[in-house]
Automatic annotation (TrEMBL):
Protein's UniProt name: Lipoprotein
Highest rank taxon of the organism: Bacteria
């Protein structure tokens, strides 16, 4: 390789690295939004007070649906759209949290191709797991094709116990608002 070609190659490499480094720079406005979202989620769990609607962008810092070893979980039920909050529950029982985390992290991928699902009413649950400093937020669709998502990862509820476990932790009225009486009155899913 000639000196001229090496110099050109070196300059091209330096420019490429410089562009890559600029592309990795953080956006102060995005950092401020992230801090505000984290504070709001931590405050929701601390006060056991659900937001009026699930967040548009969820916080999750791991490679699985529930990457924390949470010591608290705030469940916020929304029956038919975000404005219809139907109930909330604060879960602190370690055995329940461990079981739910294990079940969530075992969920398979959403099937590809046609799938027959029951009617989707828009009912969902916001699940905010916290260890006191960090949060992992999930939204679980309770009707239609039931999926749990953190915005980056989706888990197919399918035949797992995730949906019934979550509904068993919410007040009975929340369950009835979404699923009517049959599975709610049994409360068999509640640990």
């Amino acid at each position: 390789m000639s000196v001229g070609n090496r110099t050109t190659a070196w300059i091209a490499s330096a420019v490429t690295l410089g562009v890559a480094a600029v592309g990795c720079a953080t956006d102060p406005a995005a950092e401020a939004r992230d801090r505000a979202a984290l504070h709001a989620a931590l405050e929701a769990v601390r006060t056991a007070h659900c937001p009026a609607a699930p967040p548009d962008v969820m916080i999750n810092g791991g490679g699985s649906l529930e990457p924390l070893v949470a010591n608290r979980l705030l469940l916020c039920g929304y029956a038919h759209g975000p404005a219809a909050t139907t109930g909330q529950a604060l879960v602190t029982d370690k055995a329940v949290l461990d079981r739910l985390r294990t079940s969530l992290n075992k969920l398979g991928e959403v099937p590809i191709g046609p799938v027959n699902c029951p009617a989707d009413t828009g009912a969902k649950v916001l699940e905010i797991f916290s260890d006191g400093r960090h949060v992992a937020e999930l939204v679980e669709k309770l009707t239609g094709c039931q999926v749990v998502s953190d915005g980056n990862h989706d888990g197919w509820v399918g035949n797992s116990d995730v949906g019934t476990t979550v509904m068993g932790l919410l007040p009975t009225g929340s369950c009835r608002a979404v699923w009517r009486a049959a599975p709610c009155d049994r409360r068999a899913a509640a640990p």
